[in-house]
Structure formats: structure tokens, C-alpha cells
Records
---
Amino acid sequence: MRISVLNGPNLNLLGQREPELYGSKTLAEIESLVREEAKRLGAKISWFQTNHEGELVEAIQNLPRRADGAVLNGAAFTHTSLAIRDALLAVKVPFVEVHLSNIFAREERRRHSLFADLAVGVVTGFGAHGYVMGLQALHAALRGD
Ligand code: DQA
């Protein structure tokens, strides 16, 4: 099983960026955790981060050729990007939406996701562990468990 993990803007700054909200792990450390769990599950991971909306659109457009499913932390684009929503609608590749922080416990404008109703499910508020949970849940869903 091939799983693509897609990360949106400012997630390259994890570790130094608002650690009280997002934790102290860097994105590379989160990637290691996810790869470790993927190995245990027998899944193959591709990992991607971008600060550019169009690059995330293109990564989603490429999903059907590259992955059976995706774990997506769209970061701020979650709350703003119709273009990314349209790409997800176009490819119809199953995905789990992940957020480090609990977006429902934050400012009003972060409480709405433009992707969540298209997702298999959403994991929000569990920090870095949420990526591992998202991978596990997606893996089970794709296997039909
Ligand atoms: C985030 C939540 C978003 O609201 C925010 O813009 C991010 C990170 C999270 O993982 O908690 O950049 O997606």
C-alpha cells in the first residue's frame, strides 16, 4: 500500500513555530515517526511539504498515479482553499485530514475545514501522534478493516 503524506504551508517551521500549539517536534521528526509506523504496517510512504497552494494542488492531482491514499495536513489552506478542495474532488483518492492542534478549539475562522466532508475522517488535536493515528486509520480503511 502506498500512502502519500502531504503537508501545507509553514509546517516546515515545526519545532520552532508556536510550540505551545504545535509541539516541539520538527517535521523531519514527525516524518520519522510516520515512516516507522508505515514499516510496521507494511506501507510505503512518500512525504511532501510545500508553502505554495499550486504545488499542493499538483501533488493532489498526481495522487492517482502515485498513491492508494493520502494523509493531508493542509495547514492554513484547510480554511481557505477552494482550489485544493476542487483537486481532492477531482481525484477522489481517499484521504485522512490531520491537524496537530484541535482546530475546533481555536479561533472561529479555523473551525471550518473546506476538506473535512471529503475525507475518510479527521484527526485533530493529538499533536505529532495524530499523523501516526491518521496513517493507521487510513491503512485500516483502505484494507476494509
Ligand atoms: C494546522 C492548523 C491550521 O489552522 C494552521 O493554519 C496550521 C496548522 C494544525 O496542524 O494544527 O498551519 O493545520
---
Amino acid sequence: MADCIFCKIAEGGIPSKKIYEDDEMTAFYDAFPQAPVHFLVIPRKHIRNIMEIDAENSPLLGRLLVKAQELSKELGCEEKGARFVVNCKEHGGQTVDHLHIHVLGGRPLGWPPG
Ligand code: AMP
Ligand code: ZN
């Protein structure tokens, strides 16, 4: 999608610190990290948010989640764990309208969210 910052990151038009990419997804470090480990996993396809997940594209979401947990382990989160977050729309705190999984780790995180 023309004006989407994460589509541009996936296409390489905007620089990012890439951790992983293949033909259907890319993972890169968050520009404003909220924890010692903070990266995002996104589909290359422009899916706006998790409300657009259905029976057809849910296998892709599953693969995104598996990659998120694999990368979290590679980045040292296996023993103590991490948080896997998908913000959605206004009340969910979503600021970029391209589906992304946040992975935050490396420190204890509070709950509930504010
Ligand atoms: P959300 O608020 O769930 O939509 O998360 C969007 C995330 O994207 C935020 O944590 C931002 O810090 C991050 N972000 C925004 N622009 C960039 C960028 N150019 N490179 C990396 N991360 C970004
Ligand atoms: Zn997009």
C-alpha cells in the first residue's frame, strides 16, 4: 500500500534494522524500543489489523507467531520469556495500520496495561 510505512520497510524503501525476512514476512527492531529486546514481525502483505484475520489468512498469522517466538529465543528470551502483543485500532493502541506482532523481552513487564 502506497502510504504505509511498514509496507515501505518490507520493500526496503525505508531503512530498518532487519532481523529476518522471507517471501511473506519481515522482522525488524522497533525504532522506539520499550524493552531491551523489542522487535516487530509483519506480513509483507498489507493486512491492516487483526480484525482482518480470517480462515483464509490465519495460517499466515500462525507462521508470523512461530517466527516471533523463534526469534525471541535467538535473542535470549527463551528462559525468562517475553510478551507477544498485537495492538488493534484506537482502543488497542495501534499507531501503524499494518498488522504487526510486537515481541518485548529482556526485563519484567507490568500487567495490566495502562
Ligand atoms: P503500534 O503502536 O502497535 O501500532 O506499534 C507501532 C510500532 O512501530 C511502535 O512501537 C513504533 O515505535 C514502531 N515504529 C514506527 N515507525 C517505525 C520505523 N520506521 N521503524 C521501526 N519501528 C517503527
Ligand atoms: Zn502496509
